[in-house]
Amino acid sequence: MSAEDQIIAKIQLHRDIKNLVIEELRQAGIECQETKFTDSKGDILIINPIDVDRVRETIKEIQQRSNP
Prior knowledge:
By secondary structure, this protein is mainly alpha-helical.
């Protein structure tokens, strides 16, 4: 696999994980949106700051499913 292919694979994995997190958050009733690719603050904007603890819990659940 070339260096370019490795970079593309990492970017695709990043995109897929980001989309999974957004989908899971929305299913949990947490309002969020994808940020622009160059946003230095992150990939996902959580609209309501009150949801931060629920976001952390949702991400923890995703991690547990991914790393049994």
